[in-house]
Each structure stands twice: as C-alpha cells, then as structure tokens.
C-alpha cells in the first residue's frame, strides 16, 4: 500500500512569488489527505530556493544546478514520489481548499481513469479552453493553427482541439490533460511511462496523455472544482521563441506516434504552421508596438510638408520659396530626430505615451536647433519651420494618442491620470497591510473602501458586505479587487473571480506574504506589488538610455583611443572593453563584485566599472558593496553612469 494518498510535484523556474502563493493554497488543500509536496527548482536565481528553505520546510526540495526542462524535472520528482496518485502542478496556479478531496474521490470511484484535469480560469477569471483538449491529428492541428477553432468555437468539426462543442460545466472524457494540473494514477503512470524528456517544454502533456490512453485508461475533464492558472509566468506566449518551441514539440509528437503518409502530412503542415504563426506574431508585434511610431512618422513628416507650403505662402508670398531639398534632407532629418528623442523619452511605452512624447519632441527640437548651426548654409532653411514643426509634432502626437485611446477604451485620456478605484477584501489587519505595502512599493491606487468577510470590522470602516460585492463593484466603478487570502478561502476567491462581471483586475495578498499577486490576461506575465525594492534600472526607458550612453562613450573612446591609452591604467584592456561594450557583451558601469544581492537585482552585463570603482584601493566590505549595488539599481539615472565614469575614467582598461 502506498505511503501517501497524493504526491504533489511542482517544477519551478524564476517565479518565486507565484510559487509561494501556490504552496499556500496546496497546504490548505492537504488537510484531509496524506500528501507529500515535492518542488523541483530549475536553477532559479530569484530567491526561490531560499523561500523554500525558510518558509516551507515541509516541502521536499530538489534544487538543480541548471534548467533541465519541465519533463526531466518532473521525472526527477516522480522517481521519489510515494503517493497512490501523482499531481503535476504548475507554480503559477492556485487550488481551492476542496480540490484535492474532490479529485481523490472521483479517481477512487472511477478505476478506469488514468488521468484527471480540472476546470481552469486565468487571472481575470475567464475559463481557459485548454482545460480539456483533443489529440492533435493533422486536421485538428490544421483547424487550431489557422484559426478555424477560434472562428467556430462550438463546432464539433472545427474545434476538436479544445473540445468546444462539449459543456465546460459537465464531467466527460478528454483526450489531453493540461500539464498545469495533471492528476495521474500511479498505476497508469507505471504502465505508460513517465514524461518523455525529448520535450524540453510543451507537448509532454499531450504525449503522456496519449500514452495513458494507449495503456488502456481514460483521461477525464472534471469541472466540479476550479483552479486559477495565471499562465505566461515562465514563458512569453506571444514570442517567436514560443511559436518555434511549441510547434517543434508538436513535430516531435507527430514523428513519435504517427507513421507513413499521415506522419509526413502532419509534419509538413506543422512546419508550415511555424512560419504562418511566426508571421502572425510579427504582425501582432508590429500592430502593438509599431503603430504609434509609424503614425508619428507620418504625422511629423506630413506636417513639415504642409508647414513648408503654408509658411512659404504666408511669410514670403511664394509657395516655391524653399528648395526641394527640404523634403529630401531637412524634413527626414527633423522627423528622425523627433522620433529618436521620443523613443528615448519613453513615448512608446504604454503608461507614459503622452508625457514621453512631449519630453521627446521638446528634446528633439533643442537637438535640431543645435544641429541647425552646424549645417552648411545651403541646407539651413528656416528656424521658424523648426519651431512650427516642433509645435505641430507636440500637438499632432497628443491628438493621435487621444484618438487611439478613444478607439481602444471608448474614452479620451484624462488631463490628469485617473487612479484605479480599488476595493480591499479582508480584515482590518490584512487590508492595512495591503495599504502599507502599496505605499512602501510607491504604487498609487485610489482605495475606495474595504469589506471584511467576517463582518468584524467596524461598520464605519466597511463599505458593505460580501453579499453586496457585485452591486458595490458597479456602483463605485471598481477596477481592481485585492483579496487577502488569510481571511478568504481560495475557493471563494476563485468563485468571485469567475462570477463578477466587468473589466476588473484581481490581485491576491498571500497569507504572510510580502507581495500582492495577479495577472489580467492569460498570455501576459503576472503583476506584482511587492515590498522588495522597486528598481528604476528595470524600466525600459532607463535601460535604453543606459545602452545609448554605453554606445556614445564607446564611440568616443574609439576616437580618443590614442590619447586614452597613454593615460589609463592597464591600457591593453581598453580596446577590448570598447569592442565588448559596442557588441553588448559588457556595459561601462555594472555591479560591484563580491555582492550577495545578485539574484534580486535587475540583470546587467559585466561592468568595466562599478559604483565601488573609486574605492577599490580602500577596500569595501561585502555588505557595503550590496548597498552600493541596490542604491545604483533602485535610483538609476544615466547621470549616475556619467559620474562614475568621470571619477574613475583611468580604470577603463580594467576588469
């Protein structure tokens, strides 16, 4: 007889906060069964192993020195598992308190069941169709790849991949279980074999599901319990790499399980799918990231063409006053400078579009005015056109963003940024902790009120009761709910997420945790509000500016190389450092060596210098180096790099 009823196996990679929440939910679900929990960490550098050691001593941890992939890591744990049943569970999931009990009872009464999957919702409470799937034979895969399953979601013919024609609220056999929650009978696993390690990521769940049915068992979809699967936490679903890895996994599956002409057709179709989906991904990326720059380019250049004509007629009475070279040289140059300055200022980041554009146009106009003085007199057209063009770029860019926002959200951008109305659900103690966390993390939210599920909060502090939640959300236009899991069952949290209507974001404060966790869309990474330091060096705006400064200094170093070699220490290393910075293999200013904070800091290339460079002769303790690195990353601005370079330029040949 097995020592345990259930062995829960979680493979983790770089998702410490989601892992913490998953383990807290697992712990609550283990109360009535004999359960062991095994976590395999695939060489995470985000503090996951320390979390397991310090906060979850009851978890058996297997810590790999490298990322061995999903299949191999699971097999490591399966080899040690002692349960009658084995559950493969993703770290970016939340299970309900009764999930394990219900699944155990079902499997005990259905001996023909080799595997079981449950109903899954994403971080916004929306049902995930991959909760149950059909085997991807050539026609099924064709419909999925070319979008027919999405066009006809209820069709028995076109949507056999997601079994969309079956009732998501009814238990039924399902060919394929999701690797995010894969409850397996150990006896069936012994007959079918463990996960195929040919699959590094994706496809191994399809392969194992197929082999379970080949061993004479059925797989079931079981919607009588629901879990959250945030998705996208270990991979970027919209990336080209995802497309390549996913369809390569399907090719491995086809070559393994199909033979003859059927296999050839399937593999050929999958190879075509790789290019087709890659093309769609590129188009999608361009539509999301390229529409604003392209719109600005057309507006800026078109505005200069129009202004050239208007100003020539108004000021000089001659529509041909300006030379034709203006449209070939000056206008493209001005447009390029405005676009570059806008990009550098963060104009194409979602949260800073207008402010970044206005900063960029102002900076670009100043740069154009500076360049103007160096142009050959033949190419100096008019300072008035520079000023008028800058004003046009400022105004036209603002109008275009207002229109984009209106089309997407049905309203114009507010003159003042509107804070999201937030409702906190939890006790006085826990909701106060949420407010303190948001304050310390420098996250601005408009907290409308609180609701204590226990009803013990003084009525003057409480907005209403849980029974009124749906009405309160509508009445106050709530855009975000933060659940305190110490005061609410995960089962209830999942219920509210799946049942509330409207454009609402959901976050959870884990019991004893220092982060508020959530994810609004199934294909995006989750959002964290955490008490751990928020690093400005993580912001794309400053990453770009740092890289630009690296390139400018490197190019300047090439020009001044003969002079610098005579004055820097260790001059033989300078040409190599310049080349490595140009190639992106080094940065001029990185972290101080000897620090113990590397896993919590934003990733940087090795630095030629560091915040500790000017103190090398004095010698610094490691904790001082830690503080210097944290200070550098937390409050990063390009001026910091410039100051470090200015004070330690004679060490540019080192490291």
Descriptive account of the structure:
The chain has 655 residues and is α/β, with parallel strands linked by helices. It has 5 domains: 4-132 and 168-232, Spore Coat Polysaccharide Biosynthesis Protein SpsA, Chain A (Alpha-Beta Complex), CATH 3.90.550; 235-289; 291-409, no CATH class; 421-532, 3-Layer(aba) Sandwich (Rossmann fold); 537-651, no CATH class. The protein has 22 helices and 17 strands. It has helices spanning 16-29, 48-55, 70-78, 99-109, 138-145, 148-151, 186-192, 204-214, 240-257, 260-289, 291-316, 325-344, 353-372, 383-409, 428-440, 469-475, 490-499, 540-559, 561-567, 573-582, 622-634, 638-648, and strands at residues 4-12, 35-42, 60-64, 83-89, 93-94, 113-121, 172-173, 181-185, 218-229, 421-425, 446-451, 480-484, 505-509, 515-518, 527-530, 587-589, 607-609. Strands 1, 2, 3, 4, 5, 6, 7, 8 and 9 form a 9-stranded mixed beta sheet that branches. Strand 1 (4-12), helix 1 and strand 2 (35-42) form a beta-alpha-beta unit. It is globular and about 90 Å long.
């Amino acid at each position: 007889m097995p020592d345990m009823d259930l062995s829960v196996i979680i493979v983790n990679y770089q998702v410490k906060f989601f892992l913490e929440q998953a383990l807290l939910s697992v712990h609550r679900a283990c109360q009535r069964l004999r359960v062991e929990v095994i976590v395999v960490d695939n060489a995470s550098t985000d503090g996951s192993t320390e979390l397991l050691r310090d906060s979850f001593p009851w978890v058996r941890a297997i810590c790999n020195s490298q990322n061995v992939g999903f299949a191999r890591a699971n097999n490591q744990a399966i080899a040690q598992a002692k349960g009658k049943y084995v559950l493969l569970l993703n770290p970016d999931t939340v299970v309900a308190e009764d999930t394990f009990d219900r699944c155990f009872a079902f499997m005990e009464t259905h001996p023909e069941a080799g595997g079981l999957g449950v109903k899954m919702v994403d971080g916004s409470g929306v049902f995930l169709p991959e909760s149950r799937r059909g085997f991807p034979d050539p026609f099924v895969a064709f419909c999925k790849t070319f979008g027919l399953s999405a066009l006809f979601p209820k069709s028995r013919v076109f949507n056999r991949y997601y079994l969309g024609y079956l009732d998501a609220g009814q238990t039924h056999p399902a060919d394929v279980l999701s690797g995010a929650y894969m409850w397996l009978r150990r006896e069936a696993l012994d007959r079918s074999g463990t996960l195929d390690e040919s699959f590094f990521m994706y496809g191994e769940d399809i392969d194992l599901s197929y082999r379970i049915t080949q061993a004479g068992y059925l797989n079931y979809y079981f919607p009588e319990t629901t879990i959250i699967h945030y998705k996208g936490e270990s991979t970027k679903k919209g990336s080209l790499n995802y497309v390549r890895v996913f369809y390569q996994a399907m090719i491995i599956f086809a070559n393994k399980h199909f033979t003859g002409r059927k296999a050839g057709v399937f593999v050929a179709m999958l190879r075509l799918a790789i290019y087709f989906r890659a093309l769609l991904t590129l188009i999608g990326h361009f539509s999301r990231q390229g529409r604003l720059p392209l719109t600005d380019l057309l507006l800026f250049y078109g505005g200069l063409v129009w202004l050239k004509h208007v100003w020539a007629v108004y000021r000089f009475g001659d529509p041909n006053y300006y030379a034709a070279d203006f449209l070939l040289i000056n206008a493209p140059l001005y447009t390029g400078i405005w676009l570059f300055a806008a990009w550098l200022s963060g104009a194409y980041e979602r949260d800073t579009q207008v402010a970044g554009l206005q900063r960029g146009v102002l900076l670009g106009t100043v740069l154009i005015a500076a360049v103007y003085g160096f142009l050959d007199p033949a190419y100096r057209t008019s300072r008035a056109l520079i000023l008028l063009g800058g004003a046009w770029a400022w105004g036209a860019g603002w109008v275009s963003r207002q229109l984009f926002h209106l089309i997407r959200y049905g309203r114009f951008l507010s003159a003042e940024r509107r804070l999201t109305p937030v409702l906190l659900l939890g006790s006085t103690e826990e909701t106060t902790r949420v407010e303190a966390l948001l304050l310390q993390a420098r996250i601005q939210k408009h907290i409308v009120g609180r609701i204590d599920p226990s009803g013990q909060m003084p009525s003057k502090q409480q907005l209403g009761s849980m029974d009124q939640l749906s009405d309160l959300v509508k009445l106050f236009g709530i855009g975000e709910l933060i659940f305190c899991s110490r005061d609410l069952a995960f089962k209830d949290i999942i219920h509210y997420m799946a049942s509330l209507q409207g454009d609402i974001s959901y976050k959870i404060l884990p019991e004893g945790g220092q982060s508020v966790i959530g994810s609004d869309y199934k294909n995006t990474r989750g959002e964290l509000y955490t008490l751990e330091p928020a690093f400005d060096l993580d912001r794309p705006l400053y990453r770009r500016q740092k890289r630009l400064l690296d390139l400018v200094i490197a190019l300047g170093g090439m020009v001044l190389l003969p002079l610098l070699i005579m004055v820097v220490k260790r001059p033989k290393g300078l040409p190599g450092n310049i080349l490595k910075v140009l190639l992106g293999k080094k940065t001029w200013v990185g972290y101080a060596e000897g620090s113990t904070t590397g896993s919590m800091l934003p990733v940087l290339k090795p630095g030629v210098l560091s915040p500790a460079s000017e103190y090398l002769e004095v010698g610094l303790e490691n904790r001082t180096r830690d503080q210097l690195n944290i200070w550098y990353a937390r409050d990063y601005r390009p001026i910091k790099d410039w100051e470090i370079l200015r004070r330690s330029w004679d060490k540019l040949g080192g490291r």
